[in-house]
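Notes to self after the Tuesday call (sharing in case useful).
The group wants a holo model before anyone commits to mutagenesis around the pocket. I volunteered. Ligand is calcium ion. Logging inputs and output together so the record is complete.
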Amino acid sequence: MIRLLILALLISSTAYAGSSRDIVDPSQWFDGGDIAAIDNATELSISAWVIHDTLAEDDYISANANGVTDGYLFLRDDVASISGRTNTYMIFVAESTGTSNVRVEGASEASTNGVWTNVAFAYKEDTASTGLRLYVNGVEDANSPVSTSGIVGIDAGANVFLVANAVNSSNAAGLDGRIAHVQVWDRQITANEVVEAMRKPGSITKNLIGYYPMNGATGAGETDFSGAGNDLTDHGTSATDTDGPPVMIGGS
Ligand SMILES: [Ca+2]
Ligand SMILES: [Ca+2]
Ligand SMILES: [Ca+2]
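Result:
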């Protein structure tokens, strides 16, 4: 009985990695520089845990874009521009070689405030039916997937990889809330991998080109734990928060 109790305590003590960055827009965000692996990606996936402090505005999770003409934008969208659905997530991809773009606008009320939520997209260029997928808390959105046929290349040129912002300058569409365990792959990860990466960040290592627990000190940037060396630079002075999402880290 005592042995079981100790085991339970050990498991519970390792099951929650309590840290995140508490970000206030418009003046706090991160950039990872101009990453060739993203510009040249034919496939790309990103997973992040987020909390939104307000539902009154957009909150960018990540972007590497030249406006709306090249690259990708990944955000909490207060009102989706085509469907009109509200309080949702959106992944938008615009090809670099032409003028086509594709998006998934999620279901209304997919995004709530004050609750840890895992959001992920998985993209593969020029792929009929299944080229772009959106997941919320490990479940594919009802409006996903969509075709990426004819979409080739996402190179946004010298524009940098951003976390918690849409552009590399002060922006109210940046994230107002908390963010943790941002993971980036230059591969379209599978539905099972989305769930695995949500529960055990850092565990899906194939093609992982950025992993940011977001547990760094205020002002110190964020180390890339993927091994690819794509560290993030701090903009503003977002606070370190001891609250983190319900994930398992390390040997648990
Ligand atoms: Ca373009
Ligand atoms: Ca770039
Ligand atoms: Ca915002």
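Two things stood out.
The mean pLDDT is 92.
The first strand starts at residue 20 and ends at 23.
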